[in-house]
Amino acid sequence: MNSTLGTLLKQTRKRRNLTLRDVQKETRISNAYLSQLENDKIANPSPNILHKLAKLYEISYETLMSLAGYPSPSRTKPAFRIHEDLNELTPEEKDRVLEYIQFLKSRKKVT
């Protein structure tokens, strides 16, 4: 596996016989920015940039996101899963949660 985002992007671009100008034309990302990405001068490009490059290079968006330091959805657990976490509550805590849910529902109907 490639060690950095820049290394993967550069190798993939070259393997596809594309120049930085070709990539710029297809993605509307400046060739100067692309060069900085490939040389690891920019560590965390936006997800939008990564999506464009993943699509053009036909590589995994999730891989690019991970190499850029973004958490992978498949690796992270949501902070609260009601079906699992409710079982860890006391009966009193469950009652309070249900009361709060009812309160939220009632506010939604009013506004």
- In terms of DSSP E residues, the strand content is under 5%
- Can you identify the CATH class of the largest domain? Mainly Alpha
* Number of E-state strands: 0
- Percent of residues in helical segments? 55-70%
What is the CATH superfamily of the largest domain? lambda repressor-like DNA-binding domains
Rg of Cα set? 22 Å
Order of helix and strand elements from N to C terminus: HHHHHHH
First and last CA, distance = 52 Å
Write out key terms for the chains shown.
mainly alpha; 2 domains; 434 Repressor (Amino-terminal Domain); 111 residues
Short description:
The chain has helices at residues 5-15, 20-27, 31-38, 47-57, 61-67, 82-85, 91-110. The chain is mainly α. The longest helix has 20 residues, at 91-110.
Secondary structure topology:
Layout: H1 5-15, H2 20-27, H3 31-38, H4 47-57, H5 61-67, H6 82-85, H7 91-110
Helix pairs in contact: 2-3
Describe this structure in words.
The protein is mainly alpha-helical. It has 2 domains: 5-67, Orthogonal Bundle (434 Repressor (Amino-terminal Domain)), CATH 1.10.260.40; 77-111. The protein has 7 helices and no strands. The chain has helices spanning 5-15, 20-27, 31-38, 47-57, 61-67, 82-85, 91-110. Helix 2 (20-27) packs across helix 3 (31-38). The radius of gyration is 22 Å and the shape is elongated. The termini are far apart. The mean pLDDT is 84.
